[in-house]
Amino acid sequence: MIDTTLPAQDAGESPQAAEVLLRVESISKAFGPTRAIRDASLEVRPGEVLALVGENGSGKSTLVKILAGVHQPDAGRLYVGGTAVSGLSSPRDARVHGIATVFQEVLVAEARSVLDNVWLGIGGIRGRVSRAEKARLAREVLTDLLGAAPDLSTPVEELSLSDRQACGIARALLAKPKVLILDEATSALDVEMRDRLFVQVRRLTSEGAGVIFITHRMDEVAELGDRVTVMRSGVTVGHLPRAEATLSTLVKLMTGNENAQRHIRGERAARVAGDPYLTAEDMVLRPGGAPFDVEIRGGEILGLAGLEGHGAETFLDALRGVKIVSGKVVRHTESGAVRVTSTKAAARQGIAFVPRERGHAVFRWMSIRENFGMPTLRADTRAGILSPKRTRGRLEDYVDRLKIVLGDPENRITTLSGGNQQKVVVARWLAAGPRVLLLNDPTRGIDINAKNDLYRLLAELAADGLAVVMLSTEVDEQIELMDRVLVFREGTVTRTFRGGTLTREALVGAYFGEDPAEVATLQSVASETDTDTDRAAR
Amino acid sequence: MTTTDTTPRQLRSAGRGGGQWLLRVLKRYSFMFALALFVIFFVITLIQSGGRISLANQLANLAPTAIAAMACAPAIISGRGGFDLSISPTMVLTAGLYAGVFVLHGIDGPFAIVLMLVVGAGIGLINGLLIVGIRIPPVVATLSMYFVLIGVNLELIPAPISLIGSPLEMFGGSLGPIPGALITLAFPLVVWGLLGLTPYRSLLFAVGSNDITAYSAGVRVGLVRIGAYTLGGLFAGVAGVAIIAVSHSANANLSATYALPAVAAVALGGTSLLGGRGGLFGPVLGAASIFLLANILVSFQVNPSWLQVIYGVMLMISVVLVSFASRATSGVVK
């Protein structure tokens, strides 16, 4: 487990060890073969806000869950208030140690009242507090967050998402934490409430607490963070004071200097974008989002990129006929234009979709053949009688083309590796003869060889004139594979990159809203907020 | 969404209007449908009998099923498919232990009752430990317990045991002006009310509503769930007392009798089987409605086979109403 002995250099090196509220040293955590955190260290001092930033999958959330007591680290040291603790065994344990966490997900007990929700789990720790006192404190905290006194007896499920999250935040504030962790807690809040939250955070730090603040918004980092810790691939790669944390420095740290191998580029040159197959007009992905248009042509691979929850997934769903706020998806064929209004209509119009979770796409208890043939069984029936032999025959073609490694097609699909399962799923949809192929992060969790096979296949398909739209969370994939990359941010397309001109830094910078004009305003925001927060503290 | 800080506001709610109000009331107080049924059936019963009903007798007959229904509630409220199928045989077990063991060994009166409650709670505790500790799905764990207890009951009471002059009979008759069954019926309600003064009941509802939230807020979710099953077992022990009180006997063949009526009463009472909402009033009102309806139909000489059909339809209407109210008043559009 965790080494609980104090490191020898500790006494000499940090005389104010007692002043550090929370210190994490070289923590690591693996889930099976995935090393979510390889080497993470950070420290939170009284009265400061530590902003923790990093790309998708850099390990921020896992680190937060370790500090919240949800996960236990595999190795490393943890100090709370200067004393070593052998891991936080449960969220309750974390609370006892004075660490309160607001998670990214809005966590409320839906059927319970506002009052019950804000006091959930903390009555026992703070000892006996009378109901009237609880109501008074709850009203006080919620008024600070919401700007007005709420009805404490309302069931939380009748509230808006933003107000629900306020209840979750109030719960953490009422615990009077020594360390408050806000894990992307602002994404569910509306703007005014976010401002009021920041005032509360400042009040908390002025009382000597420390705050860890995770956000994807660089303006929030500039506004609130006293120091910034950057994570990349499970490693904390930098600790910067705010003054040094310019957007470009942060983006450099987040992306690193690794240069991707360029191995698919040559094939891309051979492809020429053809006629528009699918157009999306006046798309609004979330209420108040800026509308945008996209044209998708046959023969191109279009990448959808951006931070999670910024709209790429919603857009992909819209293309396959899922209803969104507003917008028009039209499929253009030789015989005319047809609006895509439902997933069924999309399938009829030759739009195939490969979902993200393999678990959703695979029938675990069925054979490889059955998994392949499921939606296209009609092709293998004569007078209603199914011929498995015919399905096997069709599967053969794809086994060669996709380099699917399998023994007997009658074996269960789960006997295959993840990569091969994914190929069978792709083959299933290709067998339906689509003209547009939508994929949601198809290479997630599959090995490099299977990835390369899939890349090659997609390139071939595009060369054959198919329109391929692929959401990918891998930056390298966007750079290597795509002819065009749309970057989604705040529910709209903020940047479009042409394949071949793209660098990791430019792409990740765009994820975080970097463009020359914005950087300039951010820096002015950063200098202004100093005075703002001073005012708030007073 | 803009609000100014100068004007006080309510937390934003999903929608307003008369229909919304009714739905919201129905959702928050999901026993409303059962209450309406109860009032209607009660009035019919009063008119029909010309006001001459033996309250003590009627309550005593109602008590076992009504208490069984209340005993089902905590497990259901605790969420994640929480359910206790073994309530009915637990009731018969405690009655059987009383009639077949305690009385023979000279244990009677209050001490015997306490033992019955302890046995009931003990069985609930075992259920809770199986479900929380070994993570056996609640229906499977309590179904296993159901079969085990039915077998134990048959072994314990091979032939029905009749009792004469048991002190427990007072819970089937009258204590002065007070119907005795009111005491057994009130016991779970009082315990439930007292729990309302402690954090436990809030925690139970919170765990049932969203256990991930509760866990992340530092609630010991497992302990809360074990407590729910133990509480249900405790109430089953009280129902055992009610069985002795009304029938003056213990009969192993009745081990499964109360299982399905209790479930029907719980559902009719508007308790969400998803957990996190409801209480004990719903089950009691549900049980009372079914009980009164049965009496009414019998006195109108309706064919008993129709009785089952009417139960079924009533149950469906109740469940549909509650789920409709639930969907229509949610604050977040999914």
How do the helices and strands line up, and which of them pair or pack?
The complex is a heterodimer of chains A (about 550) and B (about 325).
Chain A: H1 9-13, E1 22-31, E2 34-44, E3 49-54, H2 60-67, E4 75-80, E5 83-85, H3 91-96, E6 99-102, H4 114-118, H5 131-146, H6 161-174, E7 179-183, H7 191-206, E8 210-214, H8 218-224, E9 227-232, E10 235-241, H9 247-255, H10 265-269, E11 276-284, E12 292-297, E13 301-306, H11 312-319, E14 326-333, E15 336-339, H12 343-348, E16 351-354, H13 358-361, H14 368-373, E17 381-382, E18 385-386, H15 388-402, H16 418-430, E19 436-440, H17 448-463, E20 467-471, H18 475-481, E21 484-489, E22 492-498, H19 504-511, H20 516-537
Parallel strand pairs in A: 3-8, 3-9, 6-7, 7-8, 13-20, 13-21, 16-19, 19-20
Antiparallel strand pairs in A: 1-2, 1-4, 4-5, 9-10, 11-12, 11-14, 14-15, 17-18, 21-22
Helix pairs in contact in A: 5-6, 8-20, 9-19
Chain B: H1 18-28, H2 32-49, H3 55-77, H4 87-102, H5 109-133, H6 138-156, E1 161-162, E2 174-175, E3 178-179, H7 181-195, H8 199-209, H9 211-216, H10 221-247, E4 249-250, H11 259-268, H12 281-299, H13 304-328
Antiparallel strand pairs in B: 1-4, 2-3
Structure report:
- The complex is a heterodimer of chains A (538) and B (334).
- Chain A has 538 residues and is α/β, with parallel strands linked by helices.
- Chain A is 36% helix and 24% strand.
- Chain A has four domains: 1-98 and 177-188 and 200-257 and 514-538, Rossmann fold (3-Layer(aba) Sandwich); 104-176, no CATH class; 260-350 and 434-502, P-loop containing nucleotide triphosphate hydrolases (Rossmann fold, 3-Layer(aba) Sandwich); 360-433, no CATH class.
- Chain A has 20 helices and 22 strands.
- In chain A, the strands form five sheets. A six-stranded mixed sheet of chain A has the order 6-7-8-3-9-10, with helices on both faces. In chain A, strands 16-19-20-13-21-22 form a six-stranded mixed sheet, sandwiched between helices. Chain A has a four-stranded antiparallel sheet with strand order 2-1-4-5, with helices on one face.
- In chain A, α8 (218-224) packs parallel to α20 and α9 (247-255) crosses α19 (504-511).
- The longest helix of chain A has 22 residues, at 516-537.
- Chain A is elongated and about 75 Å long.
- Chain B has 334 residues and is mostly helical.
- Chain B has one domain (55-288, 301-324).
- Chain B has 13 helices and four strands.
- Chain B has helices at 18-28, 32-49, 55-77, 87-102, 109-133, 138-156, 181-195, 199-209, 211-216, 221-247, 259-268, 281-299, 304-328; strands at 161-162, 174-175, 178-179, 249-250.
- A two-stranded antiparallel sheet of chain B has the order 1-4. Chain B has a two-stranded antiparallel ribbon with strand order 2-3.
- In chain B, α3 runs parallel beside α7 (181-195) and α11 (259-268) crosses α12.
- Classes of the chains: A alpha/beta (538), B mainly alpha (334).
- At the A-B interface, α3, α4 and α6 of A face α1, α8 and α9 of B.
